[in-house]
Amino acid sequence: MLEVRSMSKNFGGFTALNDLNLRIEKGQIHALIGPNGAGKTTLFNLISGSVPPSSGEIVFLGKKITGSRPHKRARLGIGRTFQNIRLIRTLTARENVMLGCHCWTKAGMWSSFFSSPIRPSAEESEIRRCADGYLEFVGLGHRADMWPHALAYGEQRRLEIARALSMEPKLVLLDEPAAGMNPQETQELNTLIRRIVDFGKTILLIEHDMKMVMDIADRITVINYGQKIAEGTPLEVRTNRAVIEAYLGEGE
Ligand SMILES: Nc1ncnc2c1ncn2[C@@H]1O[C@H](COP(=O)(O)OP(=O)(O)O)[C@@H](O)[C@H]1O
Ligand SMILES: [Mg+2]
User: Which protein residues touch ligand 1 with a CB less than 6 Å away?
Assistant: First the structure.
């Protein structure tokens, strides 16, 4: 589904990613782990197109997308959530998701948002139904009319997932979706991610909760200081010497 080839990213003199290669197979849950500052979010930014690479190439579904703009990649089927939640504060939960659904309508979001609030167009009703479907899917059907900041932290993260899904991505990039969640919320998120895969999506997941990663991932890539240090099944990665050292420090 996705191939990252010899990707490097420098910020000034600092190398955030160094000659990284990555292959993500369709239908898998592929986890990306590594200590803070390892370059995980930078890799997401490079894949989604918000940051240009210093060198290297990205191939998505057999097509080179290295130079293409973020919205174009979104239309091709790359969706994402953000480590720091990015919901629009002045829109309700439903409206936040509607923004994603609008991506597929001919009217586009502005014409619809400025349309008559008394008599919404057939298209807008359609978009509302679409948004409500995704809210239901992530378990937020009862929260549709609430403001994002009135939602619990875990709910905000699920709302971001609903918005990402509403753009009908094939590959979903989740940046620390379990951050700030309690064990029960994490368990529910786990179930949600599996259901997303059951719907034919592919997942690339950055996550610090090691129990969750080991439980859910088909394949794990470990990066440290911008370089891949290990890759394999959860069992292979868990017993890998370089990984243990990166996480616990040498000698432990
Ligand atoms: N836009 C930027 N400008 C300068 N340095 C950056 C930028 N984005 C990330 N970095 C640096 O790159 C390194 C990797 O960051 P990041 O990808 O966010 O790590 P991770 O997500 O693995 O914690 C960090 O040292 C960070 O400070
Ligand atoms: Mg990060």
Answer: 11, 14, 16, 34, 36-42
